Amino acid sequence: MKYESEILIIGGGVVGICAAYYLAGQGQHITVIDKGEICSGSSYGNAGLIVPSHSVPLAAPGVLSQGLQWMFDQESPFYIKPRFDPELFKWLWQFRSACNERHVRDSMPMIRDLQLASLQLFEELATR
User: Fold this and answer.
1) Per-residue model confidence (pLDDT) at position 98
2) Which of 10, 54, 55, 114 has its Cα between 20 and 30 A from that of 120?
3) 35 vs 43: CA distance, rounded Å
4) Whether the model pTM is above 0.85
């Protein structure tokens, strides 16, 4: 059987699957692809965790030194294989620039609002 999708979702984690669910509910033809099993990667590790009470962004004061230590520890949650990569260096420089009080203060309302919206959608899905 030949089937043509209108929408291709790359990544079968909690976000990809929820996007597919809502788009399919609108009558869209969806195909989801993932390199592994559905919801077996990061979404499995954090169980699609929604925590509206934790609205501090990752880039916060003091995180840089811990992050640099984690980068070189293969067992850490922030391991990045050491390599010469200008894009990686650019990202690290921008991350370093964001590790300040102003960034945290400015980011918290947006993160809180996103998490509250996620919680509302989760409650909606849980009642179906």
Assistant:
1) 86
2) 10
3) 13
4) no
Tokens encoding 34 = 């993932």
Q: Is 107 exposed, middle or buried (0-12, 13-18, 19+ CB in 10 A)?
A: middle
Do 94 and 117 fall within a single domain? yes
Q: Tokens at residue 90, please?
A: 């650019």
The answer on 56 and 31 residing in a single domain is no
Cα–Cα distance between 55 and 58 in angstroms, integer? 9
Note down the domain range covering 34. 1-49
pLDDT tens string 26-74: 999 999 999 888 877 776 666 556 565 566 667 778 787 887 788 788 8
Q: Do the Cβ atoms of 11 and 40 come closer than 8 Å?
A: no
Contact in structure between 5 and 27 (CB atoms under 8 Å): no
Residues 6+ apart with CB under 8 A from 63: 99
Residue found by looking up tokens 């070189």 in the block:
72
Shared domain check, 23 and 5 = yes
